[in-house]
Specification:
This protein is an alpha/beta fold. The protein has helices spanning about 15-25, 45-60, 80-90, 115-130, 145-155, 175-180, 200-210, 230-240, 245-260, and strands at about 5, 25-30, 65-70, 100-110, 135, 165-170, 185-190, 215. An 8-stranded parallel β-sheet has the order 1-2-3-4-5-6-7-8. Helix 3 (about 80-90) runs parallel beside helix 4, helix 4 runs parallel beside helix 5 (about 145-155) and helix 7 (about 200-210) packs across helix 8. The mean pLDDT is about 95. The structure holds zinc ion.
Amino acid sequence: MKYIDPHIHMVSRTTDDYARMAQCGCVAISEPAFWAGYDRSSPQGFFDYYRQLTEYEPRRAAQYGIAHHCWLCINPKEAEDPVFAREVIALIPEFLERPNVLGIGEIGLNKNSKSELKVLEEQIDLAARYDQLVLVHTPHLEDKLKGTKLILEAIARNSKIQPHRVLIDHVEEHTAKMVLDRGHWAGMTLYPDSKCTPQRAVDILETLGSERLCMNSAGDWGHSDPLSVPKAAIEMKRRGYLEAAINKVIYENPVAFLRQSPKFKAALDV
Ligand SMILES: [Zn+2]
């Protein structure tokens, strides 16, 4: 089956991972800007990273027939210093025109600090001013519920942001419904044995249905699995889901959200 991974950090993965993803049916991905495995010491570090996301990674993905897209921002993990963050944010507009950039992300909160919230609000405003889609990171573990509420309120305060143009990732059992109730899309970010596993994600689907719900693999610097989405599809099949229902979650839903950007390609040659 074809699938799309709307949230995977390929800069942290090997080229063999692209090969294995393609073998499992991956046709398109989107890569949010995030932590690079280390804290960057200057805005120039972000400039180089944005070039990597818009120039080098699309070429690496294309070798395996995968259409690569990305999102740009300063991530919450490095947004504790608002002055530094503003210097980075100032670099973003010139990159928004590039052909594989879908929007602003993954913005959000990490430790729910005041500085993070300020930088989040400024980046929501950036997305509104440049009419961009938004992809959001929600904090992990005990900070998730509070952080998700703070993020939803911050988005709602910006009257120019349309809820259906926002995808909120890392949702779990206690946050998915509140995200969907606001009219946003929700992404279950899958990890092998912590946070939301493929099994837990399918449990959530059984509770909430599949309207505006997607799955992604994170595939980041931590313990993660770039094949989480096809593994979740196998779990759906094991529980008796028909092919059309699986296809909706792993292909049609991400296409429906991502194609709100005219730059999204559901396959390399489309
Ligand atoms: Zn991420």
